[in-house]
Structure prediction request, 46 residues.
Amino acid sequence: GYTELLPPEKVLQTAFNKLGAKRPHLNPLNEAAFNKGLEIGRAAKK
Prediction:
């Protein structure tokens, strides 16, 4: 199931801070994957 424990903005910001610190070029890819995951989660929740 899909559970939202934290707001998506907070999760994404944490990903940028942790992963993006070492590999900033991956941020756009991480953001795209994260948003796709949210879409899938919302669709599955219906």
Remarks:
- The radius of gyration is 12 Å.
- Residues 16 and 32 are 12 Å apart (CA to CA).
- Helices lie at 8-22, 27-45.
